[in-house]
Amino acid sequence: MLEGIDRLVKVIQKEGVFRSSEITGVQKERVKEAARRLPLNFYLHHKSLNISQGKVYFLIEQEKEKKLVSCVCGKVNHDEFIADETINIDGFSLKICPLTHENAMVIREVFSYTAPTVLGTEPAFGTGDRIGGEASATPGHIRAVRDYDVTAFFAQQSVRENARTKRTFHNVLDDVTWGVFQEGYKGRWGADADHLMDLASMGLAVDAGFTMFTVDPSHCINDAAPDMGRKELEREWAKLFRTRKEADNFLDKYLSLKEELVSGNYKLLIRYNEEQIMRIAVQYLRAIRFTIDAYAGIAQHKCDSDFDFEMSVDETSIATSALTHYLIARELNDAEVKLTSLAPRFDAGFEKGTDIRGNDGKKPLPADLRKFEDSVKSHALIARKMGPYKLSVHSGSDKFTAYPLISKYTEGMFHLKTAGTSYLEAVKVIAQHDSSL
């Protein structure tokens, strides 16, 4: 029983909301202040107030359960939301609707800002919300970013995280949709299906409505390649190609290459010898081919509509060299893969939820920081010249030493994934304020 809902509707009517083409912030604040004085047994999320085709929509919360209210002046409400309850009071028809997947699909149609969009090369933070449901962290993420000139991937989840939290891509996106509606956030935001390792998972993410796809081909990477002896290297190299001519053509393609990438006073020479080409190919060529196939599969599944696409090679034990990055980018370009971002493994210790470390796991020495700076500088330059696409930083939480360097050398073309700390902070808030969740 929603006590006082009739009075709340009268307040909304008095503030001229039903006559508005767009509800102003002033109107929302007035409704909020008036609602505080009413004997309500539910909480009004006033920022959610919005209007479409004469119907007013808002979120309420009662006993930790949130519901959507659809309100129209008249006896019958004909919108497409599925209601638990319909109420007719004083010339208004109200539908009280659960926050289901079906209703999330409808609200994304009614209010386009509640649906994710393709963000391209805009600077972005991937916050992610690994909990969702009653303990959704999305409203907090929105409040953290809304006053800054960045975009966010409020929906960011991997298949592995979905399995551990017993969620689906549909759950993840729907929870964010309701969080965006609750906060009345009208900025652009994205949905990143992270660490995708098979075509079936990619299809599930496409079907759920995700707009970014981060392919993780780590299962195709051969990290033994850098330490292989010559004979073993030649055997593994030969396995990559159907014919000797195909292998020779690949070698010639990069042996004949000499390119100098320049940014200001910084110059990066791209030049390969035979052994470098063979080792990079043995380590990464299968991963590159998997990524090309993944891109084609996603594009076909999306009927060639636009999407953000990332290749991640950070899930390896070996730092990504500039020559490796260039070869990967060149192969993807030649296959007409449109990269939005690429995540290398940086030459530094990147652990979740802590600042960067030296490769020995300890606090980085000045020499470690110089090495890391050179790594960021070269990767950012390659990303600009070969794309441009963004440099993606995984395990990006709390990397306060790294942030200034990433911002400086990428010139704002970065994607920082920070779901780890977002998750820890969400758990901390729950433990302190509502451990029953």
UniProtKB/TrEMBL annotation:
InterPro entries xref list: UxaE (IPR032586)
Molecular functions (GO terms): isomerase activity
Name the record gives this protein: D-TagA/D-FruA epimerase
